[in-house]
Amino acid sequence: MRTGGWFVVAGTIASVQPAWAGYPDQPITIVVPYPPGGPADLMARPLGDGLQTALGVPVVLQYKPGAGGQIALRHVQRARNDGYTLVLALAAYAIGPLVSRSAGYDPVSDFQPVSLLAKQPLVLYVGATSEITSVSDLIVRAKSRPVSVASSGYGNTSHLAIELLSQSAAMRVTHVPYHGGVQAVTAAISGDVDAVFAGADSLRHVKSGKLRALAIANDTRLPIAPETPTFAEAGVRNMLVTGWYGVLAPKGTARERIEKLDLAVKQVLSDLSKNEVLSGYGFKVVHAGPADFQAFIRQELARWSRLVADRNLVADETEGAKAGVAGNFRR
Q1: I need a surface site. Which of 2, 7, 39, 59 has the fewest CB within 10 A?
Q2: Residue 122 bridge partners (DSSP)
Q3: What does CATH list as the number for 26-120+243-322?
Q4: How many CA atoms lie within 13 A of 303 on its CB side?
Q5: Residue partners of 8: CB distance under 8 A and separation at least 6
Q6: 121-241 CATH choice from 3.40.50.970, 3.40.190.10, 3.30.1850.10, 3.30.470.30
Q7: Quick count: other Cβ atoms within 10 Å of Cβ 53?
């Protein structure tokens, strides 16, 4: 009887163990919304390695590029909310639903913020052989014909940086979207476009003699590029555009699992803040837990929604969207 009683009690105890007890005990997948080799990958790889050590389970990176990050986000939105599938979110996460009716998610309510990871200001580049040597040159050229400026895709931060520049400098700009930052930068290097907005990680192409940096969309110059002026110094105000990186989980993921993930991320970021490779690419490691990250997302939505309204950006869903592009935009 005692033995039978013991098994009854033990079974009862096991049955009331919280679902998050023992988490994690299997591999975690981080879905990356852009191709390998770009700035998202520069952040994803050390993050994955660090979390693998901190959590004691394998962490796998799964690349699902396309549609300005929306393919990856939809995949994770449909995933089980057990804390084993996460997504590396970039600033386009907050922008996508503002400019595309097909985004299919609400940035505030459809995901669980885990942690903000880092920020990285955008820089305006031209090819090293371009006749354009300054922002003033670009503005002057735009008075005679529209200048072509590449972005990493519709609805990305680089896309809205182009719109902001067009508005702030009262210049005509033709937006040329690509499927990722690597392709957009390559277009500027080859001269297929007049300029490109990209992250500070592309300053490595300036050092190698392939690009020229015209201005940084930051309030101060970067230590890794002290010779590159801010837009304010170059004569264009209101040009502050920062890309950011964070981790999200599917809606409904247990709070305890979110907190455990955030604690591990915070531990990893403590080490990454000393990572000379990341700092050399212009990343500024910034941790913000679930509540603060959610507040930050709301701030991003408020800021970019004003620009979208001012520029009258309307999504035109086309066959291009089915091929992995978020759509064309009309004014």
Answers
A1: 2
A2: 199
A3: 3.40.190.150
A4: 18
A5: none
A6: 3.40.190.10
A7: 12
